[in-house]
Request: fold
Amino acid sequence: MKKLDFYLLFIFCHLTIQIGQTQSYPPADDCLGGPIYPSLASLLGTLGPTTYSNPNGPSPLCPGSGVPLNTGWYSFAAQGGTVNFVLTFSNCNVNSSGVQFGIYQDCDFSNPLICPTQCYSSGTYSFVLGLEKCRVYNLFINGCNSDVCNVQLSATGPIGPCNLEIYEFINYDNDHNLEACVGVEKDFFVAPGSGEKFEWTIDGVIVGGDQHKMKHKFLQSGNFEICVSVYRLSAGGIRYGTPDKECSIVHVFTPEDQAGADRFLCYEQTYPKPYNWHGVSITTNGVYRASFTAPWGCKYDSVVRFIVLDKPEPKKIYHIGTTPNNYYVNPKGILIKDCNKAYEYEYLIPGACKQYLEVHQFLPSFKGILEPVCKNDNKLYYQPKIENNSCQSEEAYLVYTYYLKDLLHPNAPIIKSDKLLEVREKSTYSFFMDVDVYFGPEVKRYGMNLVWILLMSHYIYLTVVKIFKLKTYSSISMLRPQLLVPGDLNPDRECLTLIK
Reply:
């Protein structure tokens, strides 16, 4: 994160500055345990070995030469870049043997960056090193034969502090507002660094480890400040570097049931298979629960009352066919040939539940014969015998009306009855009938011609004739011609001889 002070330091530290300091800095006794100066600039000044015996250092001090006697250590964190070093030696006040110096990185004595083998008691020594950003460099000064001298350090180039950065917001949340749930462990993280360590705090209390991510469980609700700062550890375990810091507010919630609005389910949504609501099967009315997890980790129950609607009462349709094969045709163009039972189908209205239709069919089919009847009133009657073979899903109410028409005497009145037909004189008649079909709310009338009746002498012939349409076409089974002998019809032959 770019802070104002970082920008100022950045500009300042990139100036090429020649600094000659008069301030003196005491040396540390060893490489790993000594303090780490935050920058090379903060170390510029007068340095030197220890004034007492301190053989803490590699032996030899430099490859092939040098014995640690009173070795002093100065460690600093580098800004990074190419730096020009100048060491000026003076005031060797013990034995004028001078001092030996060298620079290591991270107290790794296997590979010195610079380490002259001779001792210096006066004059200057200049050298150039390319320093890595935020690496620790270790300068040692050792008195040859335990000599003690002043060493003036000056440098030019990028000699500012090691500025550490956190490159992303916590959990990549740029509004710095996070959510968590009481009792649920939550992950917090920033972008990983390159060798950096991280310190996490919640309301100022250190929590978690030293990695770029950590887990934390809040035990109570409320708002908490979580912060993370970055640092580095030296080879000796000492923190160093100018840290960066990121903070956010964590809003911690206590999980509660969430009541949803009532929901209505259509009959077909629960039958024949139950309705699946987030793994909960629903078939009847009731209050149901389903568990959910919020994006911030809270587990809660959604509570909803489901109302399962009954199957709608089917709307009844009554179809009266005109012929035995005049079946009902559903909206898909399919003939419904099973007319002995009600046929149900469904249809959709946009935005509503399925609706149902129940179709009842009546497909006409009749057989008819005439039977002579003699009564005690000395008159001749014929009684129609009608056999109803119609296909129907429920009982229809039928009303029959019978007619005899005199074909030899066109002006003669038509004989009409709903029961017996009285024949008053010998002639040729046409027999026909009407059938009024009452089927549900529907009514339809069928008219049909059945037989010719020929009356001659004492013999009566009934001959089937071709059916023709009168009002509504209907199919009638054909009858074979038959000879009716008066003596075979009724013991009362007297009524047959009345016809002149």
Remarks:
- Residues 226 and 416 are 105 Å apart (CA to CA).
- The chain has a mean pLDDT of 84.
- Helices lie at 4-13, 267-270, 486-489.
- DSSP finds three helices and 37 strands in the chain.
